[in-house]
User: Fold tRNA-cytidine(32) 2-sulfurtransferase from Neptunomonas marina.
Amino acid sequence: MQAEEIATNEERKTKTRLNKLQKRLRREVGQAIEAYNMIEDGDKVMVCLSGGKDSYAMLDILLNLQRSAPISFELVAVNLDQKQPGFPEHILPEYLEALGVPHHIVERDTYSIVKEVVPEGKTTCGLCSRLRRGTLYGFADEIGANKIALGHHRDDILETFFLNMFYGGKLKAMPPKLVSDDGKNMVIRPLAFAREKDIAEYAELKTFPIIPCNLCGSQENLQRQVIKEMLQSWDRQHPGRIETMFRSLQHVVPSHLADTELFDFKRLALGFAHGIDPSLGESRLSEPQAIDILSL
Ligand code: SF4
Assistant:
């Protein structure tokens, strides 16, 4: 086969793969938006762009959906330049200008604050993220954005779930949609149903100009790294487990856990199907499933 022919075949394969991934991501983002009513007609969505693969993919897919959506909403890309040494300031403005997307670059030297406050050798990501969040939430108010889109995906959500369970003693993940603590901002995670490996491949094929997050020299939280590796090894050994685990976050059965604040076990009484008074909080298991599981 001629070199030219081989190159054309490769290009064709890449294009097919890219189309397939884009369709999948579009579908998953569309489903997440629909399931949690993330975006409504007239919304102004501030899309937080860090320069990492996830936020590039989020913006790309949201722009794509915006073109064909039956509702009208605005997208504004916002990057926070945290003044980490070596941060290539020109990359995002150039990328966004070429795309023709309305955008803002917010400059705030959180790097110096973090360096001043966190003792040498300790991980800085916690404080850095809190400062970033605070600044971005404030900026959303300034520009009148009523939704803030963050690029966390399904793997981030599951990692957070296991981190909270293993190290925090709580069944708590990262919600696809939430109101900030001060009640002023609505945060959405349109990539909630998307897999990290799909996003990574999409970002590579789209050749997004990635800016690494660790320019500051900080290490990723070690515990998160351990959980990530655990999930990746399960995924290799048991394909489909990640999907099943994520589904479990969408099908919580309070009456079959042990949280007395979530389910009133004290008032549980005989005389109702499966011993559950619907007024106390109905089990979501249908009757046959409940019997199957109970008889295991
Ligand atoms: S790696 Fe550096 S820039 Fe990224 S979150 Fe951590 S401290 Fe912040």
